[in-house]
Amino acid sequence: MYQIRTVVLLLFLLNSFNNSIAQPKISSKKEIAKLTDNATVYLKSANFEKSLGISKVALRSAIDANDLNAVATSYITIAANYAEMAEFEKAIFFYNKSLSYAKKAANDTLKKKINNNLGNIYCFEKKQYARGIQFYENSLQYSQKLGDTSQTFVTNLNIAWAYFDIGNFEKGYPSLKFINKYNKKYGDETTITAVNMLNGMYHSYKGNHKLATSSFLNAIQSGKGENEKSDLSFSHLEYSKFLSKKGDHKNAYENLLRYNIITEELYNKEKLKKANVAGINLELDEYKRQIDRIETEKEVQLQSLRKSRIIVMLFGVVFVILLLLLYTLFKNNNFKKKANAELSQTNKELIIAKEKAEEASIVKSQFVSTISHELRTPLYGVIGITNMLLDEHKELAGSPYMNSLKFSAKYLLSLVNDILQINKIEDNRLVLENLTFNISDEINMIKNSLIFMAKSNNNILRVTIDPDIPEYLIGDKLRLSQIIMNLVSNALKFTKNGEVQIRILLAKVDCRTNFIEFQIQDNGIGIAAADQEKIFEKFVQVGRKETDYQGTGLGLSIVKQLLGQFKSEITIDSAIGKGTLLKFVIGFEFNTEKTNEIINNIQVDMTSTQPINVLVVEDNHINQIITRKTIEKNNYKCSVVDNGYAALEILEKENFDVILMDINMPLINGFETTRKIRLKGIDIPIVALTAFDKAEITEEALSAGINDIIIKPFDSIKLFEIINILISKN
User: Fold this and answer.
1) pLDDT reported for residue 414
2) pLDDT under 70 in the chain at which residues?
3) Is the peptide bond before 713 cis (omega within 30 degrees of 0)?
4) Which of 73, 186, 258, 578 could form a disulfide with 236 if both were Cys (CB 3.0 to 4.6 A apart)?
5) In this structure, are 691 and 627 located in the same domain?
6) Alpha carbon distance 162, 151 (integer Å)
């Protein structure tokens, strides 16, 4: 053993010396492929020594040529040799090295082959069937990706064999069924023995002795005339088990004897001994490459040391410069201290200013909220009484005074809503909703609502919708409608005897997001280039005269800020006398499953035919009259109380179907009244009827036990819809 090691060491040193004298010749891909093919031929004939020797040369040539595919192929052959020699740990090591190079080369063909071979080792040699079958599954995926049905055939054969080996015939049967189906097309002399043997094993498991015997005999007969002697040996082994199971022990013994003879031939001890020497040489090459890397690192270190001498000299120069800088820094330090003190004082002042600004913002939000509440309450009365007068006195329907009153009230309500909307956006309290909607329905609804406005200026309003846009999208349809309504009404307002077009186009589709481009174009008065940025500022109306257009100047500012919530921007193309084109793009989700879920969850109005008794808790007498009239107009019974305590008292005497609860009341507010009602165990649906903004009170309303919220002034149709839904649920 000592002499062998000495010879090996001398060969290694000689090889190193030769390498230091001359650079190796870079082989061509064709030459390397020829070497790997020869190595495979010797492997198939069980000449492991020759196969490993040629593989060693092929591997070295492939590494020198930086041919990743050839490196992976050489490692596959080396691993296969070790597998045949029963050196399975080494085989796994080299298969893994091969797999790493195949991944670098992105070669799916090699990856499927390597995974199949690793499956063979883990299943049939290491008996780790779960891990082995996983490698087979990986191989199947690569085969299917490449469309390689022949390799799929071989891998399914291996999977069936693995499951049959552990007695799990039911799991292996789908693979057996596959190979039987494609045996004539993809089977050949290398697989026929194994296919017949697996059929014999399955028929034996099913108790079909006649078919099992026929299959085993066919496997043995076909195995005698082919080179795959290992399949023949296993056929004898499985046939022996079958015969033993039948009780034919004599023939079982004979087949077991033949299995041992063939196995002994395949693994000749002399061949394995010679192959081990070749394997040692191959491993020395691996060690040599490691030593070469170490020597290279040493050379790098020597170069680093040479550079370090220069660095020491430079360090001296730098040290002198640092001394000069140190003096400069010392001199500047006093100046910095003084500057830092001033900066610290400035920061304190900025913090105080920031706190004051935040306090002012909170006060502003509270002021806007309070003002909107205080304005909505009398507006509810004005709008409600106007509607009552028109209902009770039909002759006033054509009165210009009544129409002016109704218009003024709605205009004032619109102004309040716009101011509140601006305040919400600025305070980051606006949250977009995700609801399913039909974009055609929304746009046509906007068109219908603006027809009167179009006719007043003798304009034509046209709508074009791209047919490629999905029927249902998911997003905030209310905010979208608000944006388009503002832009279109603005276009109609500044266009006379002209045309306004709404175009909805599908810009692009990214996964489940459909990006929709909205275009609003008019041929009206146009906007000067200098004014195009100003129109999106609050309370700005470019070129407005005292007798000109109605409006607050908030509409386009709201549009710009709402588009910001959609992560979109608006572009404008306009000139004086040539009209205006406005464009923006919004992405909406298209998800069939999610859309169906949202549609299925939409509550259906199930109006009850039974008499409904409503309790109204309201302290404002005008609002009491309006709410009572609205409810009784729908043929509901209505009772009214002035405060929360009166509500608790009447609930002890009388039963109600629903309660309409005002929030801002004296003595006891609507939240506290609701809590007391719930503590009594009364589960009557309660709807908050309030002038507060919904977002401000939703959390407290839910915690108090309120079922829904309606903001004054309200739409009576919406009120009755909510009442009917709550009653039907209750």
Assistant:
1) 58
2) 1-25, 225-228, 267-299, 302, 357-377, 379-381, 384, 387-430, 538-555, 595, 597-610, 730
3) yes
4) 258
5) yes
6) 17
SS3 502: strand
Last residue of a domain, one of 568, 600, 632: 600
pLDDT at position 547: 41
Sign of CA dihedral 305, 306, 310, 312: positive
Tell me, yes or no, whether 504 and 572 share the same domain. yes
What is the per-residue burial (b if ≥16 Cβ within 10 Å, else e) of 604-626? Answer: eeeeeeeebebbbbbbbeebbbb
Are 519 and 647 contained in the same domain? no
Q: Does 456 share its domain with 594?
A: yes
Torsion of CA 390, 392, 398, 404, to 10 degrees: -30
The answer to whether residues 576 and 621 belong to one domain is no
Residues 514 and 648 in one domain: no
Phi first, then psi: give them for residue 589, nearest 5 degrees.
-75, 140
Q: Where are the beta strands (DSSP E) in 368-498?
A: 435-437, 460-465, 473-475
Domain finish residue from 566, 600, 634? 600
Domain extent for 491 = 435-600
- In this structure, the chain runs to a length of 730
Specify whether the CB–CB gap between 462 and 450 falls below 8 A. Answer: no
Number of domains composing the chain: 2
The encoded tokens of residue 132 equal 């082995």
Token couple for 707: 């079922």
Element (H, E) at 584: strand 580-589
Structure tokens at 420: 């509140």
- Give the DSSP per-residue string, 353-376: HHHHHHHHHHHHHHHHHHHHHHHH
Residue 451 included in any domain: yes
Task: Report pLDDT for 401.
Answer: 62
Q: What is the model's pLDDT at position 39?
A: 86
Residue whose structure tokens are 């599908």: 506
CA atoms of 244 and 204, how far apart (whole Å): 12
Amino acid identity at 230? S
Residue 473: which CATH number?
3.30.565.10
Instruction: Report if residue 555 sits inside a domain.
Output: yes
Q: Are residues 451 and 587 in the same domain?
A: yes
Which segments within 604-675 are labelled E, that is strand?
613-617, 637-641, 658-661
Q: Are residues 625 and 592 in the same domain?
A: no
Number of Cβ within a 10 Å radius of residue 115: 23
CB 156 within 8 A of CB 140: yes
Backbone φ, ψ for residue 123 (5° rounding): -80, -50
